[in-house]
Specification:
Blueprint (H helix, E strand, L loop, with lengths): L10 E5 L8 H14 L5 E4 L5 H8 L8 E3 L7 H7 L8 E5 L6 H8 L4 E6 L3 H16 L10 E8 L4 H13 L3 E6 L2 H8 L9 H19 L1 H32 L1
Parallel strand pairs: 1-4, 1-5, 2-3, 2-4, 5-6, 6-7
Helix pairs in contact: 1-2
Bound molecules: adenosine-5'-triphosphate (ATP) and magnesium ion.
Length: 256
């Protein structure tokens, strides 16, 4: 697996969770529809051999704003792989849909050069346990730096005030990973997927509460460089105060 963005300012959003059916393709296609409605022709890169995102794109009516699609799951020989994964010049936002059961090797490749990683999680005990293990893997195996502040969770198919949602929130708090949106369990996601559209292509009165959640995701995306800078500054202050303390300890030891 190789992803070679052509431009430096590419916003590569990777949707990940090895657990099947948690909403990766739903989140990927709806984010793409969101950017398309804003006139920012996005690209969907589909790494899942099921090809759900590409099939959705094929069902998309031609009258709607364009979304590019790359069937990254169709493996070509190495020599032509980077050509196959080439992102069109007019793309700023690439949304990567990933398969269930992704292995460590693929995880490293798919997260390389990512600017944001979103993990959709269903609020059930089994899904939360699986997500906890996966996030640990992501931080250690794929060496995703938590100081980059590019990792966030989207709670999906939620019903309000459930115990399991509260449990998920406590776990993420302990890891300092934000839940940036809470998507409700809604037939709108099912109906829109069937006809190749996103919630942003539906009548606003039908989907208003859901669109607000996508606005929250977009705001979190927009604040990324600032969050990253704040985290870097805090790290720098911690390092400096640590080296000051160890310097003072050395001096005390020398003069004792
Ligand atoms: N918020 C939601 N409300 C209602 N249905 C949903 C919601 N999110 C996803 N679904 C439905 O749940 C099913 C699984 O969603 P989806 O295909 O996006 O999951 P996935 O993580 O991509 O699955 P896979 O791991 O198999 O690729 C689909 O039928 C989808 O329409
Ligand atoms: Mg999928």
């Amino acid at each position: 697996m190789l992803i070679s963005p052509q431009h430096d300012n590419l916003n590569k959003i990777v949707i990940l969770n090895p657990k099947g059916g948690c909403g990766k393709s739903t989140l990927a296609t709806n984010l793409a529809a969101f950017y398309a409605q804003q006139g920012k022709t996005p690209t969907i890169m589909d790494f899942d051999p099921q090809g759900s995102a590409i099939s959705w794109l094929k069902r998309r009516p031609g009258s709607l704003p364009t979304i590019h699609g790359i069937a990254a799951y169709k493996k070509t020989v190495q020599a032509t792989r980077s050509w196959q994964l080439r992102v069109p010049d007019d793309t700023v936002n690439v949304i990567v849909d990933s398969p269930a059961g992704i292995g460590h090797e693929d995880l490293r490749e798919i997260t390389r050069d990512s600017t944001k990683i979103l993990i959709p999680v269903l609020p059930s005990a089994i899904d939360i346990d699986a997500a906890s293990r996966f996030i640990t893997d992501l931080l250690s195996v794929a060496k995703v730096d938590s100081n980059d502040r590019k990792l966030a969770v989207v709670a999906n198919r939620t019903r309000k005030h459930t115990k399991s949602l509260a449990r998920l929130m406590r776990f993420l708090e302990s890891l300092d990973i934000p839940i940036i949106a809470v998507l409700r369990d809604s037939q709108n996601f099912v109906d829109s997927a069937e006809v190749g559209i996103g919630l942003h292509d539906m009548h606003p009165s039908r989907v208003r509460p859901d669109l607000e959640q996508f606005e929250r995701i977009a705001r979190w995306f927009d604040g990324w460089s600032e969050r990253r800078q704040i985290a870097a500054d805090i790290l720098d202050i911690q390092r400096r105060s640590f080296s000051k303390v160890s310097f003072m300890r050395r001096r005390q030891a020398e003069s004792a």
